[in-house]
Amino acid sequence: MTRLKGESNNRSFLILGTLVAVLLIGLTVWAVQRGQTTSSTGDVQTFDLTNQPMLGQADAPVTLVAFEDFKCPNCKNFEENIFPTIQQKYLDTGKAKMYKINFPFLADQLPTNDSVLAAQAAECAYDQTGSQGYEGMSTILFRAQGDESQVWATKDKLVELSGSVDGLDPAKMRECLDSDATKTRVEADKQQAIKAGVNGTPSVFVNGKLVQNFSADEIGKAIDAANTN
Q1: Transmembrane ranges (predicted)?
Q2: Kind plus residue range of the DSSP H or E element containing 135
């Protein structure tokens, strides 16, 4: 998983972390005594999935939500080597559906935030041809992925890539990017990730619960468990 960066050698932070840990231990003991749990990893999150790209059948009983950054190498690995198994076993069979939400953070410190630009392009593709367009643009973006520390998803490159996706009009992509037509939606996606406590990509939720290991086996187990509940 590609994680958010932070300081690790600040003494004040360590002291504060120790105090917080002690407090959490105390809260956990209190909760156990009351027959409750305080584990944040067990929290069930709710997401606004309105107009989010979706794969699978709308009436599937289990809902997956995946947060990704198009500059994230781990997301590229997930999409190319893990997601196909999930799609074949669960999405195509009607056992689950998956929504994809942008969490563009890797380029926050770069001269041009091409994490945001790439996410905007995917949303522009969604506006043209729906979930099919989003998925097609997503596939091309990960295939063309450059170094995460370098700006590569420029507007010109994104317009060029859109020409390789069936049904997309590069001229409309250019207009959409130049007008920032989807920037507000991308920012709303990012805020959903922050609200849910997402600290890295890819992050996959099954019926609102975060899967700690994004391997095909672990996600599959979570889907199977949700289908039996």
Answers
A1: 12-32
A2: helix 114-143
In tens, the pLDDT along 200-219 reads 999 999 999 999 988 999 99
Residue with structure tokens 């690790």? 8
Full DSSP string of 28-74: HHHHHHTT----GGGPPP----TT--EES-TT-SEEEEEEE-TT-HH
Q: How far apart are CA 209 and CA 201, in angstroms?
A: 15
Listed residue (193, 186, 198, 120) closest to 159, CA to CA: 120
Identify any residues that bridge with 64 across adjacent strands, giving them in sequence order.
Answer: 98, 206
Cα dihedral sign, 117-120-126-127:
negative
Q: How many CB atoms lie within 10 A of CB 184?
A: 11
Sign of CA dihedral 38, 41, 44, 45: positive
Give the pTM: 0.82
CA 2 to each of CA 39, 47, 133: distance values in angstroms, whole numbers, following the listed order: 22, 22, 26
How long a stretch of residues is the chain? Answer: 229
